[in-house]
Specification:
Blueprint (H helix, E strand, L loop, with lengths): L4 H4 L3 E3 L10 E19 L2 E16 L4 E15 L4 E12 L2 E12 L2 E11 L7 E10 L1 H5 L6 E18 L4
Antiparallel strand pairs: 1-4, 2-3, 2-9, 3-4, 4-5, 5-6, 6-7, 7-8, 8-9
Length: 174
């Protein structure tokens, strides 16, 4: 993970070593996160959070190597307080010692969880041309805090956990 995981684990700040970039590689990633931002009433039954999710990613390779990185994901999260359905999307930046990795995710669910897909969309320097994807599960306390706020309320801190159980990535020419 000091290799590619540091890139993904840096889903805004990680360090990755080139030895991870041989063909398709698979990682399992666990990322506790915190969010801060604002909540707005955007419809008769909808509240929207606009803010930033950030934290530390812990990635484990098939061989058991464990690495860490920081990540930042500007995001939006919508909760329908009547149907209790949620949708979220974000763009992420992972910073590694040898370059940057970028990704995005979309998920949907109910208060407390959001399941979806994460995609690595590119990178810079040694990670130029990186591609990858994984299923993604997000667990959070944010939806519960969105249920009955006043529009414009500031969320100083919400917490949760994101899991990418089968993150597969590759670099061109490897």
């Amino acid at each position: 993970m000091t290799r590619l995981l540091n890139i993904l684990l840096a889903a805004t700040t990680l360090s990755l070593a080139p030895s991870w970039a041989v063909g398709d590689e698979k990682l399992s990633v666990l990322a506790p996160w915190q969010a801060e931002g604002k909540i707005y009433k955007v419809g008769p039954h909808e509240m929207q959070f606009i803010g930033v999710f950030k934290g530390i990613m812990y990635a484990e390779s098939k061989s058991g190597d464990l690495d860490t990185a920081f990540f930042v994901c500007p995001a939006t999260h919508v909760l329908n307080v009547e149907t209790k359905k949620t949708k979220a999307s974000a763009r992420c930046h992972i910073v590694a010692a040898r370059g940057n990795i970028f990704g995005r995710f979309e998920c949907s669910g109910e208060p407390g969880y959001c399941d979806g897909r994460f995609e690595i969309t590119g990178g810079t320097e040694e990670f130029d041309g990186i591609k990858g994807q994984s299923d993604m599960q997000v667990r959070m306390a944010l939806s519960a805090r969105m249920a009955e706020p006043t529009s414009g309320d500031v969320i100083a801190q919400a917490e949760g956990l994101a899991v990418w159980p089968n993150l597969t990535y590759s670099l061109p020419g490897q």
